[in-house]
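[step 3/7] fold_predict: job queued, chain A
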Amino acid sequence: MLTTTTRIRVAWSHCDPAQIIFNPHYYIWMDASTHALLKQAGLNLAEAIKDPLFRGFPLVTSSAQFHSPAVLDDEILLTSKVKKFGNTSFHVAHEFTRNNTLLCTGKEVRVWGGTDPESESKLIAIPVPGWVRENLSRSDVVDVSV
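[step 4/7] structure written:
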């Protein structure tokens, strides 16, 4: 599967009073990593959202399990890839490590969103396009760090 990696330097603004990463940051990074994964698969979101039938890839479920803390100035590595496809959904697995120490594992379930033909304001799940499945299924690792 297509895998993205992102290097993250823990900044003061990421930390809570205990000087460890404030856990909502993991969810922000997972969301950004899923967007980067789809961009690497060829989805130009700025162009795609111009299509009135495409409504994005909304998050249905997310979870994280914390294994070890990260602190100010640590460099952590986020690795993300699709683990499973449904008809209208896909499951993304995220792993945060520091020097081969597992810090956090996360999961997201997203659906491919479309517009309901009977009500333009209603979001519906539609099949994940074949080209998206194909591009996310290719074997490649891409560093998307800025």
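[step 5/7] annotate
Helices lie at 24-40, 45-48, 130-137.
The mean pLDDT is 93.
exit 0
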